[in-house]
From TrEMBL:
Entry's localization field: Membrane
Classification of source organism: Bacteria, Pseudomonadati, Pseudomonadota, Gammaproteobacteria, Alteromonadales
Record's bilayer topology term: Multi-pass membrane protein
Protein name listed in UniProt: MFS transporter
InterPro entries named in the record: AmpG_permease/AT-1, MFS, MFS_trans_sf
Gene3D superfamilies to which the protein is assigned, alphabetical: MFS general substrate transporter like domains
């Protein structure tokens, strides 16, 4: 009966809480590195004359997001020396990774595409690795801002995290494009600026507190005595237990279905995103137009609709939000097919960005909230990293062949984007098949049992 008393007004009050705006800032920190290894890197390589296939394969560095679960137990259980005592477990890992990202940006500024292409790839890989590592701590930080009795508010947290992510990726990410076209910045100069902005964002982490609701400690059931027993117990604690707990709680068939859905859901969006900058430049848009529409407009659209989407998900529920958002997300890809047929039309570009920003924000908020909902508080970082990594696997490894697909289609962008729209079908069919089990899981979680 308590759920029926929730109204749009009462749900919206959560956005007045300081912890929600802290999640927004952490979302910026999470999204910003994608500028360095995504849009800016793609534009730099495109201007340097590299092929679509080569640019697509450079995107494979993002594959580390798909395997960060391998070291997620470290973030869940280990305090960094010095940093851990001074800043706490979550913040110390974030600050450590931010320092690595900033250093790599400054290193990237000294490289040249005509001479040291391998070094650019290695540096991008280091940025991606540090970013994927800090995301583990940031996601755990976000989830632990809410008690188990507040799990329904994970949609609000996901909305602000999504808005923050796009602020870092699109809002701050637009700056290099304007500077390269406007005042003749080189792409190397842009990386110096990006490094300085990383340090600026890092300073915010110094003044926040550790999560309000700490992770639940593991029951040791008596400490093992021998060294071998301690090693086995440690492996079980950080690797086996998080996976075992998820499968026991959900049941094997449902757990496997959930993981398959997570793998497939964002595949089409990833194929589109990997080639979007290349498409914009090939079709005839300038860096200024890309910065304005693809970055700034997308930024504001995403912020508005991420918050709106979180409110809708609070009312409809996360599972219904996933189904509706997924259909809308896939349909919006057809707008880019239209641009491919018409040519560099600014009004059409604006329309496509508005529609894509809306649908992407809604679906992403539902997707992030869905994964957050599945995490047990004893293994917050590890379980979220495992599922988010699985979601990134299709986005990173398979989407690295997006350039190959475009080349195989003879550069027919209209057909390429139509194919990306169809990629959503398997995941939605799977989601529909298990929807009743997920509705029950959602109801149990709102009662604080997860």
């Amino acid at each position: 009966m308590a759920e029926a008393q929730h109204t749009w007004w009462s749900d919206s009050q959560v956005f007045k809480q300081p912890r929600i705006w802290l999640i927004f800032v952490l979302g910026m920190i999470s999204g910003f590195p994608w500028v360095m290894i995504g849009s800016v890197l793609s534009a730099w390589l495109q201007d340097a004359g590299l092929s679509r296939s080569t640019i697509g394969f450079f995107g494979a560095v993002i594959g580390v997001y798909s395997v960060n679960f391998l070291w997620s137990p470290l973030i869940d259980r280990i305090n960094l020396p010095f940093f851990g005592r001074r800043f706490g477990r979550r913040r110390s890992w974030i600050l450590f990774c931010q320092a690595i990202i900033a250093a790599c940006c400054f290193a990237m500024a000294s490289l040249d595409t005509s001479q040291i292409l391998t070094a650019i790839g290695v540096t991008a890989l280091l940025i991606a690795t540090a970013s994927a590592t800090q995301d583990i701590a940031i996601d755990a930080f976000r989830i632990e801002q809410f008690s188990e009795q507040e799990n329904r508010l994970q949609s609000a947290g996901a909305g602000m995290a999504t808005a923050g992510w796009w602020t870092g990726y699109s809002g701050l990410g637009a700056i290099p494009f304007f500077l390269v076209d406007g005042i003749s910045f080189s792409w190397q100069d842009a990386y110096i600026l990006l490094g300085c902005l990383v340090l600026l964002l890092s300073s915010v982490v110094l003044f926040v507190r550790e999560p309000r609701y700490q992770q639940t400690p593991i029951d040791d059931n008596g400490a093992p005595q021998s060294v071998s027993e301690q090693i086995v117990a440690r492996i079980n604690e950080v690797v086996i237990s998080p996976i075992n707990e998820f499968f026991q709680r959900s049941g094997f068939k449902l757990a496997l279905s959930i993981l398959c859905f997570i793998f497939l859901f964002k595949l089409g969006e990833a194929f589109l995103g990997r080639m979007s900058i290349v498409f914009y430049k090939e079709i005839g848009f300038s860096n200024d137009q890309i910065g304005t529409y693809s970055k700034l407009v997308t930024w504001w659209v995403t912020i508005v609709f991420a918050i709106f989407g979180s409110l809708v998900n609070l009312r409809l529920g996360i599972i219904k939000g996933l189904i509706i958002g997924g259909i809308a997300m896939a349909s919006s890809n057809l707008m880019f097919s239209w641009i491919a047929l018409v040519g560099p039309s600014e009004p059409l570009f604006l329309s496509a960005v508005l529609i894509d920003g809306f649908t992407s924000a809604w679906s992403t908020v539902a997707f992030v909230a869905f994964i957050s909902l599945l995490c047990h508080r004893t293994f917050t970082a590890t379980q979220y990293a495992l599922m988010a990594s699985l979601g990134s696997l299709g986005k990173t490894i398979l989407a690295s062949y997006s350039g190959v697909l475009v080349d195989a289609l003879g550069g027919n962008w209209a057909i390429f984007f139509a194919i990306t729209a169809l990629m959503i079908i398997p995941s939605l069919l799977l989601l529909w098949r298990i929807r009743h089990h997920l509705f029950e899981l959602e109801q149990r979680s709102q009662g604080g049992s997860v």
